[in-house]
């Protein structure tokens, strides 16, 4: 037997401080009221650092710093100069990408191969792409000399901590806005490393402010009267609350929320690549992906074959130490999330769907969940409707293309969808009818700075990335 | 004095391509700017909102599936029909808002021109709002706007025809279906405009026109779960508008709330952008 | 009832005739497909149809079914396949896993010399190396086989006798295969008679690319017959097949026709073996076993030069076809310079120091 020996990426490259302050006006500062929380390595449950918890007063200070920087420095600055700062940031991120990848993996629990090969390259590319827009906004299709919006309050999730930061910060800065950003409470470390990068790049103080904390801090950011634009990525439930709190204020709002994407496999699909896409669609990042292909809709005539292959492929997935370069599935980000995944999968079994997981020993400490598929899932089952946000796939079948589309669209969500067929016209037919902001045809979970991303229906509004993504940060 | 007794028009709702009364049986008196009685308008209820949304939902897929060329032609046809009834609308607008014949004529002409402007948009929108994205990999990647679906709208108060046309035309040009609440105190030009729509090959249900009270109906237009976007242009009461926004948040509707629109200015793309969704499609490019 | 098979423009035509008809006279096309076109041999390699070929073709019910099955194979998406291969290539094989993999890889090498300039001296030297790859370490495994041209088989057979190292000969007009079937068969028979116990044949790419898959199939059947007990490796020359869809179809065609191994390349055409094409062929053998119960081996050949490459291939074997294929019985590397790199890496693991070309033998 070919047993892969452990191949851990070295942790020595990162230097995690025992505690972190807030990043306000270009300085790391202690919180005004002294609260703190711990960031934990979900693979080992060890405490990584104490993180300052920002109160309303801290958010006030951050917004004030952002306002001043917007009015005095960043807003008036020529786009060509803003571009150079962003290029600088892109380059520093690329230079420090190994360190940031390791840090992200430790703090989040995701495998190093993903932080190294997916997250970090996309982060750097996102800054590089938007840097180029900073002095070309006249040509972005929003009229001549579009103005920035002002101060952006941004709240990001824990599933792609640094990438979501990049998606928020890069376009905001390119368009001339300043930001107050709150990273997720379970994954603040790379955002704080980004704060150091802002200093390394000599970014003017106050252009980027990072306030750490949990829901209360986030609420303080989005409801702050000094914030002109709110951007949030996270659950639909929280997005709904934010939309309500912003109602009537005239603030601009973009939301990138949950999803329950269908991945439709037609009988004529390139079957091995389809199976690969299904695996990537749901097990990438432990399924902590808002656009995860969490519902497999497979044509009944090939369902058995697809399932056989899927199971065979799942048996080769390697779960374990996120820092091991051969790990495919890392740790669940938090105990809380693990509880939610367990609850929903128990509901799935209770409702009559049948779970299957490959032989997969789980480590003793840390938060883990084996990759799981449920067969015999019906549209009415909760696991076919609710976002699980974990490595759990619901398998449903269909008979005709119309039925596939109907089932795929039968959800309040509308973030992404997948379609697998070797017939070009069928692909276009399906892509046209799928109610989703992103359709991956014969591929899945692909992202690019130039490609607008965002949802329909209860998956939120606004786009991130591409020319169209600039709209959220311009006064158009 | 005419020796003939005029035949008065009963102003009703426009719903699913038909002109029914309000299911509630209610009406309200509509007065001219000078205060004289013009007619009774239907006082639509929340159930009329419900029925109108259902009609819009039913009509929307077919309208979106029509070619952009056809949608443009139909919008142009609407302009033609309006132009043909220019004199009638000048009179109705003048009755509704008072002022000079010249001013009323200007409003009607601007409404016709606005329809013509939007008639040119359906077959250009994709090219202007969408495009190919040069992703760093072997993929065809393309973004194109799609209609958001069913839109509910509160038409602006005080500009009974131009305001209505200005909010309605972009929504249907983009392939949506709409339920629009006419200007509360000046609903008659809107109902007559529905007759223009009804004779313009616009499929029934794509536009549904209600008359009634903003305060009563805007919350229902905002909270209906089968509505994808709400346009609060005509909600002048800030508190009511905020309530509508909160109601819209329940199913994450897109909300459009412009500040002080100037209907005589050339419209930009804002309203078109507000009623489309961008869909990005990826496909590998390989052998 | 007998069946004839005719493939034209990617479509399969099969038509039956009574057995009593017997073979037709050479050179005469007895059947058409009903559209006035000639029968299955039209446009072949233009040789008159031999009685033997008639005999093969007239018993080809299996061929017809096999070819029909090829039409139903799922497509291959190039981008997805190559991404999967790139993902497997990021596996990090360290320490004990690496030591195991290096020894396994050495034991899978078909140590190859296929030059016009090959001489008995060169071949003898290669055979000695094959039997004792690292003279300084008797614990180093032998390679799987030596692979030479037919003319060199007698020399190699004498050297390798009793060593446990197999003797492979290329045959069938290697590398182009542009010779009549009679010559291919004779080439094969001569190599086997001289002592080769493995035959590496090339498929008729001209026939394959022009859609005459039946011809390709029949030739493999004929060569397999000529091999007798020798194992048959069928070289698809994937670099000339151009698309992954073709590679998948050719893999299945070769397996249905009786291949013991499917092999990527002659090494004379670029690109030779690649990780994605090998992945695809590994998928094919796994699927073929699942469908027929028969296991077929895979041999990437050409362009695999480093230990790192070899590790990637072994990872791919392990995760795509499965551990059942991780022996020299089912997986081979067609290579020459790879062996020395494996040996140097092996020495590094043993000593902790990097080795150099002076510490392995040049052959």
From TrEMBL, chain A:
InterPro entries: Ald_DH/histidinol_DH, Ald_DH_C, Ald_DH_CS_GLU, Ald_DH_N, Aldehyde_DH_dom. GO terms for molecular function: oxidoreductase activity, acting on the aldehyde or oxo group of donors, NAD or NADP as acceptor. The active site is at 256. Keywords: Oxidoreductase. The keyword Thylakoid does not apply. It comes from the Bacteria. This is Aldehyde dehydrogenase (Acceptor). The lineage of its organism: Bacteria, Bacillati, Actinomycetota, Actinomycetes, Glycomycetales.
Automatic annotation (TrEMBL), chain B:
Keywords: Oxidoreductase. Residues 30-255 form the Aldehyde dehydrogenase domain. The keyword ATP-binding does not apply. GO terms for molecular function: oxidoreductase activity. Gene3D superfamilies: Aldehyde Dehydrogenase, Chain A, domain 1. Pfam families: Aldedh (PF00171). This is Aldehyde dehydrogenase family protein. It comes from Stackebrandtia albiflava. The lineage of its organism: Bacteria, Bacillati, Actinomycetota, Actinomycetes, Glycomycetales.
């Amino acid at each position: 037997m070919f047993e892969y020996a452990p191949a851990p990426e070295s942790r020595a490259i990162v230097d995690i401080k025992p505690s972190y302050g807030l990043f306000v006006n270009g300085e790391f500062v202690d919180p005004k009221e002294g609260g703190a929380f711990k960031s934990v390595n979900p693979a080992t449950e060890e405490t990584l650092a104490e993180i300052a918890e920002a109160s309303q007063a801290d958010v006030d200070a951050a917004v004030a710093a952002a306002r001043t920087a917007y009015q005095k420095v960043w807003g008036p600055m020529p786009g060509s100069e803003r571009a150079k700062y962003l290029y600088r940031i892109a380059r520093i991120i690329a230079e420090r990408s190994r360190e940031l990848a390791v840090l992200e993996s430790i703090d989040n629990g995701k495998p190093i191969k993903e932080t190294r090969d997916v997250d970090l390259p996309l982060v750097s590319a996102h800054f590089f792409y938007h840097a180029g827009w900073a002095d070309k906004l006249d040509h972005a299709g929003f009229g001549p000399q579009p103005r920035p919006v002002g101060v952006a309050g941004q709240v990001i999730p824990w599933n792609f901590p640094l990438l979501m930061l990049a998606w928020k910060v890069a376009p905001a800065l390119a368009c001339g806005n300043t930001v107050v950003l709150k990273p997720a409470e379970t994954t603040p470390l790379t955002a704080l490393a980004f704060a150091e990068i802002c200093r390394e790049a000599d970014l003017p103080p106050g252009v980027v402010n990072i306030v750490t904390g949990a829901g209360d801090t986030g609420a303080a950011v989005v409801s702050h009267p000094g914030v002109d634009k709110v951007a949030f990525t996270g659950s639909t439930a929280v997005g709904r609350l934010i939309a309500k709190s912003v109602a009537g204020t005239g603030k601009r709002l973009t939301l990138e929320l949950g999803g329950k994407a269908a991945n439709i496999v037609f009988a004529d699909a390139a079957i091995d690549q389809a199976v690969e896409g299904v695996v990537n669609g749901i097990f990438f990042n432990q399924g902590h992906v808002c656009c995860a292909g969490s519902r497999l809709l497979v044509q009944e005539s090939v369902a058995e074959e697809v399932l056989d292959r899927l199971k065979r492929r799942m048996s080769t997935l390697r779960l374990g130490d996120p820092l091991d370069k051969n790990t495919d599935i890392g740790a669940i980000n938090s105990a809380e999330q693990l509880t939610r995944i367990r609850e929903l999968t128990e509901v799935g079994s209770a409702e009559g769907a049948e779970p299957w997981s490959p032989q997969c020993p789980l480590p003793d400490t840390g938060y883990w969940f084996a990759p799981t598929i449920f067969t015999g899932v019906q549209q009415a089952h909760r696991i076919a409707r609710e976002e699980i946000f974990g490595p759990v796939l619901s398998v449903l079948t269909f008979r005709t293309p119309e039925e596939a589309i109907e089932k795929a669209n039968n959800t309040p969500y509308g973030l992404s969808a997948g379609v697998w067929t070797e017939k070009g016209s069928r692909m276009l037919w399906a892509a046209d009818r799928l109610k989703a902001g992103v359709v991956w045809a014969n591929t899945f979970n692909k992202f690019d700075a130039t490609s607008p991303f965002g949802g329909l229906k209860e998956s939120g509004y606004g786009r991130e990335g591409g020319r169209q993504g600039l709209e959220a940060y311009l006064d158009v | 004095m005419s020796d003939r007794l005029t035949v008065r028009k009963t102003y009703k709702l426009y719903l699913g391509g038909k002109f029914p009364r309000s299911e509630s049986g209610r009406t309200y008196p509509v007065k001219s700017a000078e205060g004289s009685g013009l007619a009774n308008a239907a006082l639509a209820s929340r159930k009329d909102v419900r029925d109108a949304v259902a009609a819009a939902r039913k009509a929307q897929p077919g309208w979106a599936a029509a070619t952009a060329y056809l949608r443009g032609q139909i919008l142009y046809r609407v302009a033609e029909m309006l132009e043909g009834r220019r004199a009638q609308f000048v009179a109705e607008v003048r009755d509704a808002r008072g002022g000079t014949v010249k001013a009323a004529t200007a409003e009607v002409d601007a409404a016709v021109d606005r329809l013509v402007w939007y008639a040119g948009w359906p077959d250009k929108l994709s090219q202007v709002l969408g495009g190919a994205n040069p992703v760093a990999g072997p993929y065809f990647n393309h973004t194109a706007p799609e209609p958001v679906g069913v839109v509910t709208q509160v038409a602006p108060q005080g500009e009974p025809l131009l305001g209505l046309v200005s909010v309605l035309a972009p929504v249907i040009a983009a392939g949506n279906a709409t339920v629009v609440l006419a200007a509360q105190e000046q609903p008659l030009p809107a109902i007559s405009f529905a007759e223009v729509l009804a004779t313009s090959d616009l499929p029934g249900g794509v536009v549904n026109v209600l008359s009634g009270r903003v305060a009563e109906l805007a919350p229902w237009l905002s909270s209906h779960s089968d509505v994808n976007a709400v346009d609060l242009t005509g909600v002048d009461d800030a508190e009511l508008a905020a309530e509508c926004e909160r109601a819209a948040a329940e199913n994450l509707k897109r909300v459009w709330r412009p500040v002080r629109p100037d209907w005589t200015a050339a419209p930009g793309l804002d309203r078109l952008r507000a009623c489309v969704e961008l869909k990005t499609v990826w496909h590998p490019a390989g052998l | 009832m007998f069946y004839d098979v005719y493939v034209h423009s990617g479509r399969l035509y099969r038509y039956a005739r009574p057995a009593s008809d017997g073979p037709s006279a050479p050179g005469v096309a007895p059947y058409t497909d009903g559209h006035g076109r000639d029968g299955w041999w039209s446009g072949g390699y233009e040789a008159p149809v031999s009685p033997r070929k008639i005999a093969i073709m007239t018993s080809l019910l299996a061929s017809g079914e096999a070819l029909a099955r090829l039409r139903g194979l799922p497509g291959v998406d190039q981008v997805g396949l190559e991404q999967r291969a790139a993902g497997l290539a990021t596996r990090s094989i360290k320490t004990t896993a690496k030591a195991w993999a290096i020894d396994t890889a050495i034991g899978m090498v078909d140590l190859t010399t296929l030059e016009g300039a090959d001489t008995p001296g060169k071949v003898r030297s290669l055979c000695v190396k094959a039997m004792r790859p690292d003279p300084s370490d008797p614990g180093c495994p032998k390679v799987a086989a030596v692979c030479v041209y037919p003319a060199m088989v007698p020399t190699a057979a004498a050297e390798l006798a009793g060593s446990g190292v197999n003797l492979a000969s290329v045959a069938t007009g290697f590398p182009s295969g542009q010779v009549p079937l009679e010559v291919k068969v004779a080439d094969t028979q001569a190599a086997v008679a001289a002592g080769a116990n493995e035959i590496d044949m090339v498929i008729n790419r001209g026939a394959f690319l022009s859609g005459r898959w039946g011809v390709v199939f029949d030739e493999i059947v004929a060569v397999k017959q000529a091999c007798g007990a020798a194992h048959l490796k069928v070289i698809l020359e994937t670099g000339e097949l151009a698309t992954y869809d073709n590679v998948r179809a050719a893999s299945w065609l070769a397996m249905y026709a009786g291949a013991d191994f499917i092999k990527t390349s002659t090494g004379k055409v670029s690109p030779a073996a690649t990780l994605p094409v090998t992945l695809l062929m590994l998928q094919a053998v796994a699927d073929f076993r699942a469908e027929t119960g028969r296991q077929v081996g895979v041999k990437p050949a050409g362009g695999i030069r480093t230990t790192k490459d070899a590790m990637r291939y072994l990872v791919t074997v392990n995760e795509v076809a499965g551990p059942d294929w991780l022996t020299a019985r089912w997986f081979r590397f067609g290579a020459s310079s790879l062996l020395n790199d494996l040996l140097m890496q092996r020495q590094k693991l043993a000593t902790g120091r990097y080795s150099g070309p002076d510490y392995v033998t040049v052959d």
